[in-house]
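Step 1: inspect the first sequence and its tokens.
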Amino acid sequence: MKNKKIVVLICLALAIVLVSQASAEVKKIKSLGQYTFVRVRGQIPTAEVMKMLVDRYSADIKAGFDQAGMSEVYQPFIDQLKTAEFEDTAWNIGETVQWMLFRSQGKVKVSGPLEWAGKKPIEAFAVKVKVGFKTYTFMIPKPCGNIAYVGMTEAIPEAICSLKVSPAKANINDPITVDMSGSQYAKSLKIEVLDKQGNKVATKELTPDSPRWQTKLDKPGEYVFKGTAINMADKPSANPCEARVYINYPPIASVVPSCTECKNYYGRPITFDASGSSDSDGEVTKVAFELKDDNGQVVDSYVDSEKPFTWEKTLYKEGTFTVAATAYDNDGAVSAPTGDSSKSFTVTRKKLFGLIEFGPMLAHGGDEYDLSDYVAYLYVRPGLFTWLNPDKISLTFTAGAGLPLKGSPWKTIIMAELLANFHLGKAYFGVGPGFTTKEVDMRKAGADAVGQLGFTVFDNYLKMGQIFFEFRAPIGRTFDSHKMGIGFRFNF
């Protein structure tokens, strides 16, 4: 029982202490002027006089703000007071200020909370000082000049979003720059990138200290960049904040060679046609051609900036080649490789030719027939020509008749020969066996050793013209039956 009484007494004592402390937190005052901060004589001063007095006592004001724990507000107070609007107000009965600067025994002091409990309101000036988003309200009672702190309100402004995106039109994987540096009152920034269907393709968080972002888009079409600015109260901006970017559709390249099995096209022009290249949202402005051999080595290239975008190329090499076309549009976009933009073709060279050769020939007569030394013949020999190693070694086979320009005892002869020809540029020499029937009855038909010296007059790789000198020496027969002549050979 005794212990219970002790507990009750302790609780009552604590209650009394708390009540007394609470009542001591706010001091009620009924008069002003005993502890004035600055003295103002005469009538109630104007705002200009008060500004002058406050400026004069700036060091004392700083000491008071330091004591009140509001050192950070001192300098804005002094700076803004010079242009601040002094509003006429009143300290009404029952209203409280947080603290008040006053002077006691020549020293600047700061009171605790004060409540006006006088018989009537006190006329005063009200001054507002802004520091960031905070507004501090001070009251200066007239005419004592004490500075009283009424309170602070914080008004967080709505964030204003600003979004700039450049360029507005770009190609695939070109850099896109996003700039939100113009946003205001933002704690953080956010960007969303949406495609034409509304699908989100990218997001990015930014800050006012780092408000720029560079990105790339790898698909063509229209995109919307939506920005949001978040204020200090985590509230998103409400103003419209978006930009549109169009990613250019690249052109599509197409190339068609004039032949794919280019038989006997060595030395003949082949046309590569890229006129079928197209661009869905612009136009093709140029096409770049590239020709590679079967080892992947670039043989040649060409750029055509005029429609219909074709390239004529003559190849002096056999094999399989690949021609690729790359199209460029009016916005600088480049086509991607496709099956239509690259085609292979094979070039072969004509190696087997038909031929016909003709010309005059002299056949040696000899003294045994009491004839002149030589008899003229005209001959025609059809045959075949083939390259064993193009432009270096060839083989010719011909067989034909020689008609004498004199009568008996000279007879029409039949000649044949197989020559291996060695080419040195346009000149060549040929050697090989031949056969000739007898020119007169007293001679024998037989084998010949044939030699030729020739020169290629023209060669377009499909047809050739050659002139030559030929000497035929009999084998196993009298040398008197040798022959020599000149001729023209046409290979076709």
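Step 2: inspect the second sequence and its tokens, then contrast the two.
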Amino acid sequence: MSIELPPRIPLALLPTPLESCERLSAEWAGPRIWMKRDDLTGFEMSGNKVRKLEFHFAAARDSGADTVITCGAVQSNHCRATVLAAARLGLRSIIYLRHAGEEPPEPTGNYLLSKLGGGEVRLITPSQWAERDALMAEAAAREAAAGHVCWVIPEGASDALGMWGYVLALREVADQAARIPGKPPVIWHAASSGGTTAGIGWAVDRLGLDFPIVACSIGDPAAHIREKVETIWDEAARATGAAVPAMEIHFNDAHIGGGYGVVDDDELAVQAQATALTGVILDPTYTGKALTGLRREIQSGQYSGDDNVVFWHTGGGFAALAHDFSRIVAAEGPASGTA
């Protein structure tokens, strides 16, 4: 079945490769692990967010916008990609960043790159974060009064427009997975704002693929992420006149640990081990935590040697530079992670 897509502006380097992680598979003694390398969508705009932004920036262009407004955490991959995409296209960018400390955050990782890219940063507290959509709408109104045309992009570009980025991405995987022998692969990915999950699920349903999907939460309860995905699907169904997908996604919240952005030493050790076995850099908040979840599921016997798992690397390597791995590597070496 063909899927019609809205207009998009090419920003990402596509398609990204699907690679076999032979050493990781052997060390973890479980399924054959494959990695979808969306950390290779480009350097400055690496990660899953740029796929969604291709559709949002096309809509912004068509609306005549000269300014984009969005939000995220201080180390937001999405905000970094939005600022740098705006810079490439000659647009202004305003970003609302959630920050809990009393002092301004250190300019490291994604936060540093967002500032270098010319983003107008507005720090907000966790309580203000609950009103982020209203804050962005108010900012757009103020900018409009000053003569600007704004396009507001929700958290993570996770809505019925951004979703199409991962509908397109899943079509890439469907073609690439044809070379995977044996069972259809499980699609395992980090889940938070719901847009990536929604796009993957929509495409699997529409294309009639037999790919089980695991949305591994990195902070929120499973029910919360399910609700986000279903809201996006409902919005997309109304916009297209299509039916809401009937396929079932497994929302796994067993590995959120201390919550969003909280990473303990055991989780960092697994991530360091994975990097030592693959040469791939992981973002501790998203991909690192999701891969730790996969490791624990393998240890519990969830997957066996005749299973295939596609671990979707959704990018975010810059955020690794904002975490302290030194004590993990110095203590016992990265190949010893056992969480």
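Step 3: confirm your contrast with the notes below.
The chain has two domains: 18-46+159-336, 49-156. The mean pLDDT is 93.
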